[in-house]
Amino acid sequence: MTVRVLQWALGNVGRNAVEGILAHPDLELAGARVHSPEKVGRDVGELCGLGPLDVAAVGSMDEVVALAPDCVVYAPMLADQDEIRALLRAGIDVVTPVGWFHAGDSPAVAETQAACLDGGATLHGTGIHPGGITEQLPLVLSGFCRDVRDVGAEEFSDIRTYATEFVVRDVMLFGKLPEEAAASPMVDLLGDGFGQSIRLVADGLGWSLDRDLRTTHEMAVATAPIDTPVGVIAPGTVAAQRFEWTGTVGGVPRVSARVNWFMGEEHLDPAWTFGPEGERFEVELDAVPPVRTVFHGFQPPTLDTDLGRNEGIVATAMHCVNSVPAVVAAEPGIRTYLDLPLMPGRGTR
């Protein structure tokens, strides 16, 4: 049976998700939720640069519910928990790349779980990092091992290919003074998603982590103006960052997630580089046997790539889209990679 999917928000991830829904033989595009009044009523295909699809964009929750999609791919810039709960209470499953990788325990989580059960709906958070590379791949690789002692996932990316100014400047904090970046609560917001990933891996491997994660944050500043799609990074402001979040058991490191985000490799102090392997993702297990995997292809090959449809954006969108059939088939509730089966893509038609 074809699954009817509505795309919530038509930013970079949303536009690529629409293409993915159209290409998936088991899915049908039911509509799209937009936020700009001038986009309401317009053809979703034209909004995405695809040509007419005879599917109109809507602008309100009531209109989304009236369309009765089986699932919503919820991809705004930032999540609104009330919106997610309203969808769930209406009996609509939700897949999102903006959180809910591993919910934990809190009154807010309990309220969302109750919304799932009230509506008989499922919520699944996914993505790349945090997401599949941080959680799904380490757990899959651990199936080849015994005596797992330590698990790490790491990203090395040129952030000049991420052309969303709000995220780069106000969430990632590039272009800020180092003292401003160090004091910002945004560091904790980033850590929330990676922390969820770390705890999911620990649960999958049978570890009960210490309450608090260890966090390190290093910065390099620009030594000359750096041109980027989100404006010039001025000398003396943050132009490269390294974060690490580590979960421990009795003080011993067990699961870590790391990011290396640079505005290129020139004009940095300290003079950091990606190393000979270039941009990549890595997953490494200290186990028997030891496993280290390196993934290329999620970062654009050049800065001239269409940044709105670069490889990392496509991968994020498709990890959501390809999970939809499994999410729709799942029991109601907040579901993670530990609860769901393999979620493959589909061969070309």
Properties at a glance:
349 residues, single chain, 16 strands, seven-stranded mixed sheet, alpha/beta, seven-stranded parallel sheet, 30% helix
Can you summarize this structure?
The protein is of the alpha/beta class and 349 residues long. Helix content is 30%, strand content 28%.
How would you describe this protein?
It contains eleven helices and 16 strands. The chain is an alpha/beta fold and about 350 residues long. The strands form three sheets. A seven-stranded parallel sheet has the order 3-2-1-4-5-6-16, with helices on both faces. A seven-stranded mixed sheet has the order 13-8-11-12-7-14-15. The chain has a two-stranded antiparallel sheet with strand order 9-10.
Overall outline: globular
The unreliable regions are none
Order of helices and strands: EHEHEHEHEHEHEHHHEEEEEEEEHHE
Number of DSSP strands? 16
Intertermini distance: 18 Å
Radius of gyration: 20 Å
Strand order of the largest sheet: 3-2-1-4-5-6-16
How much helix, percentage-wise, in residues? 25-40%
Structural class per helix/strand content?
alpha/beta
What is the beta-strand fraction? 25-35%
Give the integer mean of the pLDDT values: 94
Largest beta-sheet characterization: 7 strands, parallel
Tally of separate helices: 11
Helix and strand arrangement:
Layout: E1 3-8, H1 12-23, E2 27-33, H2 44-47, E3 57-58, H3 61-67, E4 71-74, H4 81-89, E5 93-96, H5 107-119, E6 122-125, H6 132-142, E7 146-158, H7 165-171, H8 178-183, H9 186-205, E8 214-222, E9 226-228, E10 231-233, E11 238-249, E12 252-262, E13 268-269, E14 280-288, E15 291-295, H10 311-321, H11 324-329, E16 333-334
Helix pairs in contact: 1-10, 4-5, 6-9
